[in-house]
């Protein structure tokens, strides 16, 4: 059995959080090794070429939640990171009309006014409130969650500081935040707007990656979670990384290497070595053993505690809590290589509407019916789709004159009736293409290749338990000091020198890097 040299930290998983963690630890002059099981870095934030000349952001496909402090600290632009803004959202409607929101505020206001003068007036007030609430929640993204049950002076100080922060919000914003934390996105938006496609398209942010419907309580907070995305300080800004989301991971990896971190691909970890209640290193599937001062898991909580270590080495109540941690996959992805652009009936031909997002979300009822299918173990026959055409923003993603289309789809339950197989995968892909073709009739004629990814594929190929893209649902009982379980939301674990840094920890999913950064801060403080 081969034995390698000793490191200060070994990080399991080369997703973006693991790479951020490595970069910060290496920046502090620690000897760091990242072990990635696949042949390519990035985890869910990866760019792959399934068909010659066509590059796809396979799973994660947009960028906005990546913390600005990480971009600054690691100087990611010097490593090639360039975010190109997505400047519009188009919602095609079944009657041939559409609703569009543009980067130009006045143009958006006029468009909403075309559907409802009342909503055009309310839109600015809503935007101001959401900006204020996103700004109020922003400090939590950079905070290690305190333990409200602890009596230690450090924890009590952090709780008092947190309480003062919320007290300073003022009565109106505090109550508005409380409503957001408890209501469904549909009910919350009903209080503001009357236009169905506007409400539905905005409500979609509350269900992405979560096994809930737009009428499920708690989804209004998920809406705010996505609203906190920012580019250059502008909230609710979304962008596309030049070269795909894999370029984000590559830039972070290059920064980590500059600080001295070692990164190995095709190096799957079989187990974490534990001696006398303390992590001492890892054993690879190849038989190689690597010793380390600390071990950091960037994979999801179920893999971290139920597969990589013997659960018998953990407290029984902790293991039971991890078993209860909700991690149901609810989404799929369809990536298309196109011979020409889709031609939408509502806005024919090329245009700026193809350089932003396209949302198939005509009404709240449409979205809830899509969820109804999933509730009973079927993929949505008429699914919600969030679509971008990356080659319209970055021509290097496809050969000249060709295009790639990224389609994020809800709902596709991991626990599909009868299970996932090739036939069901094809049927799911057909449902997506058939639905989209109702709005862009030429689509089927311009498809050269398609890659359909189910939750089972996400688990087997990308290591996401149950195919959950966020390493665990963003439900209220799994947020902040409850993520992944109470008393262990500070990136530490019951096993000494074994830490977490994946999206299953605070603040949750999306390409944020926050979990990796906060975990590194905790590790360095413990040292």
UniProtKB/TrEMBL annotation:
Pfam families referenced in this protein's UniProt entry, alphabetically: Amino_oxidase
Gene3D superfamilies assigned to the protein according to its UniProt record, in alphabetical order: FAD/NAD(P)-binding domain (3.50.50.60)
Amine oxidase domain segment(s): 18-524
SUPFAM superfamilies: FAD/NAD(P)-binding domain
Superkingdom in the source lineage: Bacteria
Single annotated GO MF: oxidoreductase activity
InterPro entries: Amino_oxidase, FAD/NAD-bd_sf
Role noted for this protein: Probable oxidoreductase that may play a role as regulator of mitochondrial function.
Summary of subunit composition and partner proteins: Interacts with COX5B; this interaction may contribute to localize PYROXD2 to the inner face of the inner mitochondrial membrane.
Name the record gives this protein: Pyridine nucleotide-disulfide oxidoreductase domain-containing protein 2
């Amino acid at each position: 059995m081969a034995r390698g040299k000793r490191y200060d930290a070994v990080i399991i998983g080369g997703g973006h959080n693991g790479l951020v963690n490595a970069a910060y630890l290496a920046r502090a002059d620690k000897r760091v090794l990242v072990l990635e099981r696949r042949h390519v870095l990035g985890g869910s934030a990866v760019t792959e070429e399934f068909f010659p000349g066509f590059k796809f952001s396979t799973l994660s496909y947009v960028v906005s939640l990546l913390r600005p402090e990480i971009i600054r600290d690691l100087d990611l632009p010097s490593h090639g990171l360039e975010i190109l803004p997505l400047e519009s959202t188009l919602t095609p409607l079944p009657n041939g009309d559409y609703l569009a929101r543009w980067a130009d505020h006045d143009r958006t206001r006029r468009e909403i006014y075309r559907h409802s003068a009342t909503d055009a007036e309310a839109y600015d007030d809503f935007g101001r409130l959401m900006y204020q609430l996103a700004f109020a929640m922003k400090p939590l993204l950079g905070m290690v969650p305190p333990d409200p049950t602890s009596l230690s002076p450090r924890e009590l100080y952090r709780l008092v500081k947190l309480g003062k922060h919320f007290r300073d919000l003022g009565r109106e914003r505090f109550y508005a935040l409380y409503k957001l934390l408890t209501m469904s996105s549909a009910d919350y938006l009903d209080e503001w707007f009357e236009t169905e496609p506007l409400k539905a398209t905005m409500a979609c942010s509350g269900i992405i990656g979560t096994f809930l419907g737009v009428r499920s309580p708690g989804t209004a907070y998920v809406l705010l979670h996505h609203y906190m995305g920012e580019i250059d300080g502008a909230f609710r800004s979304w962008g596309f990384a030049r070269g795909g989301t894999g370029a984000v991971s590559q830039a972070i990896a290059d920064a980590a290497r500059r600080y001295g971190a070692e990164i190995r691909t095709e190096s799957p970890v079989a187990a974490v070595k534990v001696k006398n209640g303390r992590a001492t290193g890892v054993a690879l599937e190849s038989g190689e053993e690597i010793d380390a001062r600390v071990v950091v898991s960037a994979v999801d909580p179920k893999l971290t505690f139920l597969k990589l270590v013997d659960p018998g080495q953990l407290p029984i109540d902790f293991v039971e809590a991890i078993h209860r941690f909700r991690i149901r996959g609810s989404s799929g992805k369809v990536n298309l290589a196109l011979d020409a652009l889709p031609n939408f009936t509502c806005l024919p031909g090329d245009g700026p509407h193809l350089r932003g997002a396209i949302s198939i979300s005509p009404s709240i009822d449409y979205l809830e019916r899509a969820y109804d299918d999933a509730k009973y173990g079927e993929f949505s026959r008429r699914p919600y789709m969030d679509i971008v055409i990356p080659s319209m923003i970055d021509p290097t993603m496809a050969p000249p004159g060709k295009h790639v289309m990224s389609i994020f789809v809800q709902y596709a339950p991991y626990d599909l009736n009868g299970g996932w197989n090739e036939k069901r995968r094809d049927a799911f892909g057909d449902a997506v293409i058939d639905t989209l073709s109702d709005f862009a009739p030429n689509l089927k004629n311009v498809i050269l290749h398609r890659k359909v990814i189910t939750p089972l594929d996400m688990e087997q190929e990308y290591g996401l338990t149950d195919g959950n893209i966020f390493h665990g649902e963003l439900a209220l009982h799994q947020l902040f000091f409850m993520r992944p379980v109470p008393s262990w939301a500070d990136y530490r674990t019951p096993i000494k020198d074994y830490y977490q840094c994946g999206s299953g920890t605070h603040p949750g999913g999306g390409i944020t890097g926050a979990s990796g950064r906060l975990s590194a801060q905790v590790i360095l403080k413990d040292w």
